[in-house]
């Protein structure tokens, strides 16, 4: 029980027994009035002892109580008359609050739209063979090791060129032999910009030979791969125990024009591989090309 209830009970027991003996039942009404007076006196005497820390409690008349109650309502409503809960008076004008959006609206930077044109819109000619710089895989890694000691990590870029056929996205790949597929691209020169270097490599690989400048529109980065050692495995992350990766390969999405003429080296064959064939098919296309369906799923394709 609270201290107030304890004192009231004591007053009831001490005073009540005496008055019951004197007035008995005819004085019940008087007894109730006296009890109410005793209750009020006891509670009033205990009130300063149970107040919380802070400003002392001041007695307020009815007008001050109404003013304080009105001030509390205004505080809950806020300076602009909005908020929750809200208590409107009868004469107040209802207002409509337009909340600010928690997330920004969808823009072109978030919802990227890529236009895909039919494969039949493009003409593929032939040009002189384009040979690899290294005659074998061991020779390639030996050259990478030598260059790493001089200029550091190798940087390479590759372009993802998309078309559509039968209502399905296809990726243009270069095929060498019967089982080797690659994306157009290659190594960057020391200090060369990635986008400008990719345009240069695309022109060297698929550029025209009639002197007409080929326009390449690089849209976005769709992947990063690292080679931790002088070995074939590459990963879409840097392993925790690797402090100096040996190669960084970055993939870019290239928006093709509605029509174009490409020159394909004679020792290569260009193929259009559908995304469903690449998906989860690292055995046939390698880990990088087979991951393109996942990397491209964030774009919205429009078939022209």
Automatic annotation (TrEMBL):
Keywords (alphabetical) are: Cytoplasm, mRNA processing, Nucleus, RNA-binding
Under the heading Pfam families, the entry gives: NUDIX_2
Question: InterPro entries, per this entry?
Answer: Cleav_polyA_spec_factor_su5, NUDIX_hydrolase-like_dom_sf, NUDIX_hydrolase_dom
Q: Which GO terms describe its cellular component?
A: cytoplasm; mRNA cleavage factor complex
Question: Positions of the region Disordered?
Answer: 74-102
Top-rank lineage group of the source organism: Eukaryota
Q: Where is the Nudix hydrolase domain?
A: 153-278
| Single GO MF descriptor | mRNA binding
> Which compartments is it annotated to reside in?
Cytoplasm; Nucleus
- Matches recorded under CDD domains: NUDIX_Cfim25_Nudt21
Q: Which GO terms describe its biological process?
A: mRNA 3'-end processing
Q: Does the keyword Cytoplasm apply?
A: yes
Under the heading PANTHER family, the entry gives:
PRE-MRNA CLEAVAGE FACTOR IM, 25KD SUBUNIT
- For this entry, the protein name equals Cleavage and polyadenylation specificity factor subunit 5
Species source reads Dendroctonus ponderosae (Mountain pine beetle)
């Amino acid at each position: 029980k609270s201290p107030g209830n304890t004192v009231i009970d004591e007053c009831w027991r001490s005073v009540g027994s005496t008055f019951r003996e004197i007035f008995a039942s005819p004085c019940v009404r008087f007894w109730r009035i006296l009890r109410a007076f005793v209750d009020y006196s006891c509670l009033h005497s205990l009130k300063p002892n149970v107040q919380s820390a802070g400003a002392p409690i001041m007695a307020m008349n009815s007008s001050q109580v109404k003013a304080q109650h009105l001030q509390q309502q205004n505080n809950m409503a806020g300076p602009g008359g909005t908020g929750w809960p809200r208590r409107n008076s009868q004469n107040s004008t209802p207002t409509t609050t337009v909340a600010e959006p928690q997330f920004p609206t969808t823009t072109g930077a978030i919802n990227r739209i890529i236009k895909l044109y039919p494969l039949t819109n493009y003409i593929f000619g032939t040009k002189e063979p384009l040979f690899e710089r290294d005659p074998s895989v061991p020779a390639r890694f030996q050259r990478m090791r030598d260059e790493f000691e001089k200029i550091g990590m190798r940087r390479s870029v590759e372009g993802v060129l998309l078309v559509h056929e039968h209502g399905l996205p296809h990726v243009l790949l270069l095929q060498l032999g019967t089982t080797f597929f690659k994306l157009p691209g290659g190594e960057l020169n020391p200090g060369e910009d990635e986008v400008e270097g990719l345009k240069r490599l695309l022109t060297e690989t698929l550029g025209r030979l009639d002197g007409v400048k080929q326009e390449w529109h690089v849209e976005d980065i769709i992947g990063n791969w690292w080679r931790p050692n002088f070995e074939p495995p590459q990963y879409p992350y840097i392993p925790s125990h690797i402090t100096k990766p040996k190669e960084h390969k970055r993939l870019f999405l290239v928006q093709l024009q509605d029509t174009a003429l490409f020159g394909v080296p004679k020792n290569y064959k260009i193929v259009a591989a559908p995304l469903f064939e690449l998906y989860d098919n690292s055995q046939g296309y390698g880990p990088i090309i087979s991951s393109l369906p996942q990397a491209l799923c964030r774009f919205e394709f429009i078939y022209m």
